[in-house]
Design brief:
Layout lengths: L7 H12 L1 H11 L3 E2 L1 H8 L4 E5 L11 E7 L13 E3 L3 E7 L2 E5 L2 E5 L4 E4 L5 E5 L5 E7 L1 H6 L5 E3 L46 H22 L3 E2 L7 E3 L2 E7 L11 E7 L8 E3 L3 E7 L1 E6 L2 E6 L3 E4 L5 E5 L5 E7 L1 H6 L5 E3 L5
Antiparallel strand pairs: 1-20, 2-3, 3-10, 4-11, 5-8, 5-10, 6-7, 6-9, 8-12, 13-14, 14-15, 15-22, 16-23, 17-20, 17-22, 18-19, 18-21
Length: about 350
Amino acid sequence: METKPPGYDEYLRMYMEMVSFAKEELKRRATSPVHVPREKIDREFAGHNWVLLVDPRIGFNSRIIRFWINGFPPGEAENKWQFMGHRHTVEAVIYVLKGYGYSIIDGVRYDWEPGDFLCVPVFAWHRHINLSNEDMVYVASTTGPLSMGIGVAIYEDERFPEYWVFAQKDTNEKKSLIPGAVEIPDAQRGIPEGIDPKEYAGSTAAKIYFDQLTFAEREEQARRGGKVLVKGKDLKFEKTPMGWVAPVVDPKLGFYVKVMSTCVAEIEPGKRSGAHRHLYEEVNHILAGEGYSIIEDKRYQWKKGDTLSIPVFSWHQHFSTGKEPARILVHTGRPAMENIGLMITQQGEVAD
């Protein structure tokens, strides 16, 4: 009888865990929640000013996107300029539902009103000031699950300095968009003194390494130069095989995002969107209208205020049945999949 080497069963278990992952993931996708009705959202939001709508911690099989609704009262004095003053190593896109005011993001003021979008640069301090006489309410999508999953999630909040990782170290560190960059001595930032790149001319390996040394500096500049504010009145809907779509936040539009994209889809009453599936996450929030979606072989009825979480690589199509055009806020993880080379999209039926 052949003797198994020490640890054989454990190694076999781990190997089969990898082999079986794809099929197990299909089961997880099939059992993940899809529809979050407005009634549930309103009920929970009435007792809190922050309610998670899509998040792996509440049963969703989302690995990239977190989506929630948030609100805070008017007046900066009561909040002592500290309400929502924070930064994080995640991408974030905010859509204003109610109220008007402005945000300070990386030291720059951006005025907003209902229908506007804010794309917050990674690790930029930001706070929101409500100037209206009612609560400011917005929905936000971030890439928190991805950052937490790969172990690089940092949330520094002015209300909880005891949990700061970098901000407590240096005044300049609080202004940096790169975690830990400022604590590196100036002489060691970028290409260190004493190293002459000319000595390595023609070396591809050296160029790759020098790019690594200078990456953080370039990244910080690129983030500060990216777009932040999109006014709702400036949305431009254009015809696509999926229907009428207005791109909002996308690396192809000048936004410095690597993981998440945002658009708004519009479907006229009695019309339908195209049908497709893709190898990335998608979260929909119904801004106007009513109708239903076919996701794989299931039908989900929706109305204004509802949220849909589309499972990865699931066929889906939307139908507008109300008296006004349906508008759908769409967040996806498409840029992430493009950046790691796992981008697959298949088009089915074309939109009306």
